Amino acid sequence: MRIFDTFKISASGMTAEKLRMDTVASNIANATTTRTEDGGPYRRKVAVFKENLERELDRISGRSEVVSRGVKVDAITEDPTPFRLVYDPEHPDANEEGYVEMPNVNVLNEMVDMIAATRAYEANITALNASKAMFLKALEIGR
Q1: Over the stretch 65-124, which tens digit does the pLDDT of each residue have?
Q2: What pLDDT does residue 1 have?
Q3: Taking the model in full, what pTM does it have?
Q4: Position 66 in a domain
Q5: Among residues 47, 54, 58, which one has the least CA distance to residue 16?
Q6: How far apart, in whole angstroms, are the C-alpha atoms of residue 55 and residue 118?
Q7: Residue 126 belongs to what domain range?
Q8: Higher pLDDT residue, 28 or 135?
Q9: How many independent structural domains does the chain possess?
Q10: Is residue 96 part of a domain?
Q11: Residues 74, 80, 83: CA angle, nearest 5 degrees
Q12: Bridge partners, 78 (sequence order)
C-alpha cells in the first residue's frame, strides 16, 4: 500500500456517502409526488456501492495482485417495493375507487438512512484525520 492510498480510500468513501445522502434527500423531497415524467408515482432510489478493485503489479516480486482502492457507486437503482394506496377521492390522480398510488418512500426509513450515511461520512473523516496525524508524526521522527 502506498503512502497516500489511505487518503484516497477515505475520500472515495466520503464521495460515495455524499451521493447516498443526495439520493436520500431526493427520496424525501419526492415522498408525495404522485405523477412523474414516466406517468406513475415517484419510485424510491437506492445507491448501490461496490469495492473499487484494481490489478497492480508488485515491483519487488513481479507478481500481479488485486488491490482495493476504496469504494465506488455501482448504480442508483429503483426500489421494487409496491406503491402505497391512500384513499383520497378528491385527488386528481385517484382511480375509480378513490385510491391514489403514493410513492414507496417511507420518510422514517429515509431519515435512518440519512443518519447512517452521515455517520459513515464522519467515520471516513476520522480515518482521514488519523492517517494525516500518523504521517505528520512519522515526518517528525527525522528531526
Answers
A1: 777 788 999 999 999 999 999 999 999 999 999 999 999 999 999 999 999 999 999 999
A2: 60
A3: 0.84
A4: yes
A5: 47
A6: 31
A7: 5-31+45-78+105-141
A8: 28
A9: 1
A10: no
A11: 140
A12: 45
Q: Which three cell numbers stand for residue 97?
A: 375507487
C-alpha cell, 116: 447512517
Q: Dihedral of CA 57/62/65/67: which sign? A: negative
Distance CA 99, CA 89 (A): 6
Residue 94 lies in a domain: no
Residue 84 counted as domain residue: no
The three state secondary structure string of the chain is CCCCHHHHHHHHHHHHHHHHHHHHHHHHHCCCCCCCCCCCCCCCEEEEEEEEEEEEECCCCCCEEEEEEEEEEEEEEECCCCCEEEECCCCCCCCCCCEEEECCCCHHHHHHHHHHHHHHHHHHHHHHHHHHHHHHHHHHHCC
